[in-house]
Amino acid sequence: MSPLRKLLVDVHTHVYLPRYASVLRSRSNAPRIFTRNTPSGQSEDRLLILDDEPSGGRPVGGQYWDRDEKLKFMDRHGIDISFVSSANPWLDFLPFSEAQTLAQQLNADLESYCATGPTLAPDAELKRLYGFGLLPLVPGAPGESLPEAVLQLAAQHPHIRGVIVGSRGAGSGLDDPALEPLWAALAETGLVVFLHPHYGVGAQAWGTRDNGHVLPLALGFPFETTTAITRLILAGVLDRHPKLRILLAHSGGALPQLSSRLASCIDHDPVLAGRLAHDARWYLGRLWFDAVAYGAAELEFVSEAVGRAGRYGGTAAATQLGGRKEGASRMLFGTDHPKWRSVVENLEAIEEVGTWTEEDKAGVQGWNALRLFQL
């Protein structure tokens, strides 16, 4: 197939499968789905993720759990393939035994959701839907249970090509030494780790003025991602597991913008002397970034920062393929559907990056994803 053939792949699109929605409906406190009447007297379902969420959560409906609705959205916007993931809060509000059972059930549901869906004509070997699975990554999870869950996922669910994880791990963050077997298993299987925020940063940072969801989502979510991946880097996880593949939501938060500041601070901090194998900026070239940034200038900046990563490690950190810039080859289109109506903004942003060639743009729109997910 020609590398310039048009292909649009969405790597950041969410679902609440019916089984999970039922769990959320059964709850009386966040996270939960509840029904209320609108001012016009109509009933609507609302999703409340956090107890202090503004405006009583957000509307939720069939676009979250109905596969036909997902496919209609894809057809409307010319999306060929979607990698769907359960939206936050995942499972960390459950005790381990319940989380383990529910993760297994939801992964089986997701495999069926993808496997029984349509194929991508004329490429009958490709499906239109693939998934990120769930792990029982909750406080109290026995250490041996997580690598076992990864190996089971990889062996039993061929249409699940990765896992989605939040920032708290099993309660102590992703740099918890107890998670070392998890990273080893993920590196061994080749499952892609989609690092996605959930809690943001402390609400006290936003003051008392009612600004709706803007500050927690626009700033809190990417700050959470930035902190989580930086902790992983500082813990040496990427050094110890060179095959580990991590995709960062929302274009990596603030990590690309702060990577040189981070490198400078590490260089001047005796606590970290000799801990990392490379300059902190080098690790940008070990990561992948969704292109959910909403603007061409932001995408261009991230790709430039990632493309420069190799100069800080002696050898190129990102592989240049087919003439594409190294940074652009690490970026992948996403919509964040159905929480945001951002598909048009993100597509326009890709088209408007002036330093990207048509081949660069084709890579970001689809071909980079097939390479990352080994399809």
TrEMBL record:
InterPro entries assigned to the protein according to its UniProt record, in alphabetical order: ACMSD, Amidohydro-rel, Metal_Hydrolase
Protein name: Amidohydrolase 2
Pfam families, sorted: Amidohydro_2
Family the UniProt entry places it in: Belongs to the metallo-dependent hydrolases superfamily.
Residues annotated as domain Amidohydrolase-related: 9-307
GO cellular component: cytosol
GO BP annotations, alphabetical order: secondary metabolic process
GO MF term set: carboxy-lyase activity; hydrolase activity
Keywords assigned: Decarboxylase, Lyase
